[in-house]
Design a protein that fits this description.
The complex is a heterodimer.
Chain A (H helix, E strand, L loop, with lengths): L1 E5 L18 H5 L15 E7 L5 E7 L1 H5 L3 E6 H4 L27 E2 L5 E7 L2 H8 L3 E6 L28 E5 L9 H9 L2 E11 L9 E7 L4 E6 L4 H12 L6 E4 L15 H13 L2 E5 L2 H7 L4 E11 L5 E13 L10 H7 L8 E10 L14 H17 L3 H8 L8 E2 L5 E2 L4 H12 L1 H13 L3 E14 L8 E6 L5 E5 L8 H13 L6 E4 L17 H28 L6 E4 L2 E4 L2 E7 H9 L13 E6 L5 E14 L6 E11 L6 H21 L29 E7 L14 H17 L14 H9 L5
Parallel strand pairs in A: 1-29, 2-13, 11-12, 15-16, 21-22, 28-29
Antiparallel strand pairs in A: 2-6, 3-5, 3-7, 4-6, 8-16, 9-14, 10-11, 10-13, 14-15, 17-18, 19-27, 20-21, 20-26, 23-24, 24-25, 27-28
Chain B lengths: L6 E3 L4 H11 L3 E4 L5 H6 L7 E4 L9 E4 L2 E5 L4 H6 L1 H6 L1 H7 L5 H6 L2 H7 L5 H9 L2 E6 L2 E6 L4 E3 L2 E2 L6 E8 L5 E8 L9 E10 L2 E10 L6 E2 L1 H7 L9 H9 L12 H24 L1
Parallel strand pairs in B: 1-3, 2-3
Antiparallel strand pairs in B: 4-5, 5-10, 6-7, 6-10, 8-9, 11-12, 12-13, 13-14
The chains are: A alpha+beta, B alpha+beta.
Bound molecules: flavin-adenine dinucleotide.
Keywords (chain A): Molybdenum, Oxidoreductase
GO molecular function, one term (chain A): oxidoreductase activity
Organism (chain A): Trujillonella endophytica
């Protein structure tokens, strides 16, 4: 079901705003996708990593002689072989000087998480490489691991034992940043004097990206061409290229990175991690081709972890439930080697905690701590703890005050007449519509009627609940990420190649960006092809991440398309002896407005632009190519409201999601079907996080959920039909698009948790435990204290 | 996740398979549907010099009636069992339990014999075999022998079969008229192994229960029979039966395992309620 509430001028055209079928699908759903493993070079040596079996300890023996001697093995490399090759190691977005844990390609003296790579075998096949692993003699003197217990008590992160002695502290980073005020006295006054102050700590357990295609890379150093050639499963080829060139002391022109189809990433493939870099270093030092396809076991244990945090929030209100102030303290576990910088998400969470509300006074502090676990990596909505905590606290506060949670939200949401609204952290919200999406979602789900149904069901002993959550999705486009380029090139036959620095890994970029360009050029969408993911052919860019593709690349594509259209009209004007202003393009034909007989086809125009350049005015550059590099604000926003109805089995604690409704406003939609696909996928990840997925370590830092037998992903059978409504309020950037790729994953956890909390209200409070396994739920129903 | 090297043997008759297996002794393993064995090999949790593939042994794939029992060959696919008209009529709980095994793709490959020989304590088939007092036919170097279900399991994923023996068939006794059955389980997701589950069978005559069987799965190292609860049921009037009390009796003294999915305490509570639900449904079927 879809409901749409559109503002005027919402940009619907021949292709734009239409649910054009995904051009990727024909190949992807018929098994013709081409992933890294489909294009492995026949001469590549296959890698298997020896990984640490324990979380922390000193390596006392590492003997690889027998493994090296196994027929079919080319090399067995250790830290002693590879780490001396490392010249510098940092992420472009973080900069050279941002703090980082000590980095290494392979652990040499000690190990710092279970799964850390220690040695790498290069063999004729992965089978042989794994045989060789078994011949390596490894002894580790185990040391006590620094781990937080999986229910979110951080007691172990003491500074007596250090994850990284070189770093000097287990505290990876803190907020406020040095130089920022370390308290807000006005907020303290509010908290001391407000009629109601509610404080709760919310926990979010460790759950992770798990893309269908795991990480993988192949690299080949060709001394004759002075080129390191890389194919990687990545969101960002330019980051692969630059991280590798910096690592090995090569220049950017000595490295060529590209991607094939990428089978999902969710943030895991934004940056480049030690295994991928080890492959590049091995190819360079061994002067050969080297390939590594991460297996699922490795992906779960060492592929980068996410979430794993606590947020304590205090909310002050007046007697009527008007919010007067809000304070947050965030504690994150970033593991041993977070993939970027020191890995914390608090910086963005801090900006976003007030959400779509007018919260009055505000303050936020945070601490990120290292542990002997797999490092933190970005995962769709990395900062989502702000929404997860705030939306739960709003429900708890509303219940305490005896105010309906929907009414409580409505009273505190930023109203249209307050726009543009400057938040306490200085964000300027110009076009958000939180009240409209709240109204649409509650109407779609039938909120008022549900309360009656719930009362009747309770009388029969059934356990039903409804949960609402609202948020604004902030998409960061700091630095180069806010300045993406699109180049549109029309060759002599009149079709368009579109070059972009994006890195689609499931976002339908080949479809949506072709829609934008085809719309602007007035040609058929089948005459447009998107070229991305290649450092040689794509303009410099930061790839696809952070919900930016529509706003940055989409905006740039629109303007580049407009520029090319102008050029096309100028050339056509010469041919038609008319003024460009009197021309229009329809279905690939340029004609004089009102005189359809005076017309010229795109192919003739293109031929004239190149081969017929002598006919063009002297001051007109021949050819048909246009580019635009956009300049977008560093943060853009969309907003949405999610509503869920659940029913709980009284005997088992199993939760069934009976309805799930989303109302969102992402401005002009390039393709509503793609928007809905993005929302649905995100919601499924929220369902996974709340009810199924949990990466568990024991108290010694041993991973317990190392296969899909124990790390439970939601399947199609566990996911309800997701009903989506749209409110359309264009942004003020080219195209009127807004960021929306992560919101499904951000807002679904609190909507679902709130629904369970509402269902369980007659049985007492929901403990601060995640995920909500049937056992957690049944313990509440049975009144049994949690284990 | 690549298996260590092994030799691959593909016999076409049961006799040949027994011979080949005998040559390797405990160095070989039988390959049926591969749905449990292949992941174990890929993770290198186990390794064998040889795999003896039974997939070409056609004589092991059948369902037939034999002297008041339904006999199912070991290599019969779970999907075949699920759809078989004889199974559905004569041993309906076997078909019902099959639907709870994994997903259809797994049931298309997975075999009845593989599941029973594998002996996962949280699996459905071993619990059905245990509840129904099925008999297992085992083929070895010195011929075939019959084994009662009660004597089949030794511990988690271990049977009393010798290394050179092959499970050839399972014989399910057909219960008489006015019998009812049910299987109930709690699984984290559709298709998962059970966190806890139960198989219940009853026969009713003149308003009294004349025969009762309750097995539990996911509740111990092997599928368990709730003998105490059964003996309380036999002779009891169906009217006014305290289902909750039967459920409680069925789990009394059971000490189920704890793992990342649930504690033993949760398993106990849920199993007792599942027994009550299953019994209610089985009684309804028996008295319908
Ligand atoms: C995702 C997934 C979900 C699953 N969910 C469930 C579930 O919910 N419930 C459930 O019960 N099972 C489940 N299974 C397991 C499935 O039922 C397997 O098919 C079954 O456990 C093993 O049967 P198989 O034919 O595949 O045997 P194989 O994997 O080939 O063999 C399993 C073991 O049995 C031995 N073996 C096989 N046949 C014989 C024989 N005739 N004689 C002697 N030894 C033999 C093998 O040597 C091996 O040790 C699941 C599997 C997967 C992959």
């Amino acid at each position: 079901m879809t409901a749409t509430q559109a503002a005027p001028g919402s940009g619907v055209g021949r292709f734009l705003g239409q649910s054009v079928k995904r051009r990727e699908d024909a190949r992807l759903v018929t098994g013709h996708g081409r992933y890294l493993e489909d294009v492995l070079w026949p001469d590549a040596w296959h890698v298997a990593f020896l990984r640490s079996p324990v979380a922390r300890g000193r390596i006392s023996t590492l003997d690889v002689k027998a493994a090296r001697a196994l027929p079919g093995v080319r090399a067995v490399l250790t830290g002693a072989d590879l780490d001396p090759l490392v010249k510098s190691w940092w992420q472009t977005a973080m900069g050279k000087d941002s703090p980082q844990p000590p980095r290494r390609l392979l652990a040499a003296d000690d190990v710092r998480y279970a799964g850390e790579p220690i040695a790498m075998v290069l063999a004729e096949s992965r089978y042989l490489a794994e045989d060789a692993l078994e011949l390596i003699d490894l002894d580790i003197e185990t040391q006590p691991a620094i781990v937080s217990d999986h229910r979110g008590r951080w007691g172990a992160a003491k500074d007596g034992e250090l994850v990284h002695p070189e770093y000097g502290s287990n505290v990876a980073s803190t907020l406020p940043y040095p130089g920022m005020p370390d308290s807000n006295p006005a907020l303290e006054e509010v908290l001391a004097s407000a009629p109601h102050v509610v404080e709760e700590t919310f926990h979010q357990h460790r759950y992770i990206c798990v893309p269908m295609e795991t990480r993988g890379i192949q690299a080949r150093w060709d001394p004759a061409r002075d080129l390191l050639e890389i194919v990687s499963s990545t969101q960002n080829v330019h980051e692969v290229r630059s991280t590798v060139s910096r690592l090995l002391g090569l220049s950017d022109v000595q490295v060529h990175a590209r991607a094939e189809d990428v089978g999902g990433a969710f943030g895991l493939k934004c940056f480049v991690d030690s295994e991928e870099l080890a492959v590049a270093a091995a190819a360079y030092s061994q002067q050969c081709a080297v390939a590594w396809i991460e297996d699922r076991n490795e992906n779960l244990v060492a592929g980068g972890h996410s979430r794993t945090e606590d947020l304590t929030v205090s909310l002050a209100t007046d007697a009527d439930g008007k919010i007067l102030g809000i304070k947050g303290h965030h504690v994150e576990d970033v593991g041993a080697f977070p993939t970027y910088g020191v890995g914390g998400n608090a910086g963005l969470a801090m900006m976003m905690l007030p959400g779509p509300y007018d919260v009055g006074q505000y303050f936020y502090s945070a601490e990120a701590v290292f542990s002997n676990t797999c490092g933190m990596t970005p995962y769709r909505g990395p900062f989502l703890m702000e929404t997860v905590a705030r939306e739960q606290l709003i429900d708890i506060t509303a219940a305490r005050l005896g105010i309906d949670p929907v009414e409580f939200r409505r009273r505190n949401m930023i109203r249209p007449d307050q726009l543009p609204f400057t938040t306490p952290t200085g964000l300027v919200l110009e076009t958000i519509t939180p009240i409209e999406t709240l109204d649409q979602a509650t109407e779609m789900i039938g909120y008022a009627d549900f309360r009656k149904e719930q009362a009747a069901a309770r009388a029969e002993g059934r356990i039903l609940g409804i949960g609402i959550a609202s948020y604004i999705e902030g998409s960061p486009a700091f630095g180069a990420a806010g300045a993406e380029q699109v180049t549109v090139r029309m060759d002599m036959a009149g079709q368009a190649l579109v070059f972009m620095g994006s890195g689609s890994h499931g976002q339908s970029v080949e479809t949506t960006m072709a829609q934008v360009v085809a719309e602007e050029l007035g040609i058929d969408i089948d005459d447009v092809r998107i070229v991305q993911g290649d450092t040689i052919s794509s303009p410099y860019g930061t790839g696809t991440a952070g919900s930016r593709t529509a706003t940055t690349f989409g905006g740039a594509a629109r303007i580049a398309g407009q520029k090319l259209k102008e050029k096309i009209l100028q050339v056509a004007a010469v041919a038609l002896e008319a003024s460009p202003d009197d021309l229009e393009i329809t279905d690939g034909v340029v004609s004089v407005k009102g005189t359809p007989g005076a017309a010229i086809g795109m192919e003739q125009i293109a031929a004239m632009a190149y081969a017929g350049h002598t006919m063009l005015p002297a001051d007109m550059e021949p050819g048909l190519e246009a580019k635009h590099r956009i300049r977008n604000p560093p943060l853009m926003f969309s907003n949405a409201c999610h509503a869920a109805i659940v029913e709980i089995d009284r005997d088992t604690g199993a939760v069934e999601i009976k309805r799930y409704v989303v109302s969102e406003d992402c401005g002009n939609m390039i393709n509503p079907m793609v928007v809905e696909g993005q929302i649905t996928g995100g919601v499924v990840q929220g369902i996974g996080g709340v009810f199924y997925e949990h990466f568990v370590y024991d108290g010694d830092g041993n991973p317990l959920t190392t296969t899909f037998l124990d790390y439970l992903l939601p399947t199609a059978a566990d996911v309800p039909d997701i009903e989506i409504g749209h409110v359309i309020t264009p942004s003020n950037t080219p195209g009127g698009f807004k960021p929306m790729g992560e919101g499904g994953a951000i807002c679904s956890p609190p909507a679902l948790i709130n629904a369970v909390r509402d269902a369980l209200a007659p049985f007492g409070g929901l403990p601060n435990v995640q995920p909500l396994t049937p056992e957690v739920v049944l313990d509440v129903i049975d009144g049994v204290p949690a284990v | 996740m690549k298996p260590a090297p092994f030799t691959y043997e593909a016999p076409t008759t049961l006799g040949e398979a027994v011979d080949v297996l005998g040559r390797y002794g405990d160095e070989a393993k039988v390959l049926a549907g591969g749905q449990s064995l292949v992941p174990v090999l890929a993770l290198r949790l186990a390794r064998f010099e040889a795999l003896v593939d039974l997939n070409r042994v056609d004589e092991l794939a059948y369902v037939r009636e034999d002297d008041g029992a339904v006999v199912v060959g070991a290599m019969t696919r779970q999907a075949t069992v699920e759809a078989d008209p004889l199974v559905r009529r004569a041993v309906p709980v076997l078909a019902e339990a099959t639907r709870l095994i994994g997903h259809f793709q797994i049931r298309n490959r997975g075999t009845l014999g593989g599941s029973i020989a594998h002996g996962d304590p949280a699996a459905e088939y071993p619990a059905v075999v245990t509840a129904l007092d099925a008999t297992v036919t085992v083929a070895g170097p010195s011929g075939t022998r019959q084994l009662a279900a009660a004597d089949l399991y030794d511990g988690p994923m271990t049977t009393t079969l010798a290394d050179d023996e092959i499970l050839a068939a399972v014989s399910f006794p057909v219960w008489g008229p006015r019998s009812g059955f049910a299987v109930r389980e709690m699984a984290r997701r559709e298709g998962d192994f059970a966190t806890a589950g139960t198989v219940v069978g009853v026969t009713v005559a003149d308003g009294r229960i004349t025969r009762a069987a309750i097995s539990l799965f996911g509740m111990g190292p092997v599928p368990l029979r709730a003998r105490d609860a059964e003996s309380h049921l036999v002779g009891a009037a169906t009217a006014g039966l305290d289902l909750t009390a039967v459920g409680a009796a069925a789990v009394a003294g059971v000490d189920p395992p704890s793992d990342v999915h649930a504690s033993g305490r949760y398993r106990t509570r849920v199993a007792s309620r599942l027994v009550a639900r299953a019994l209610e449904s089985a009684l309804q079927e028996a008295t319908a």
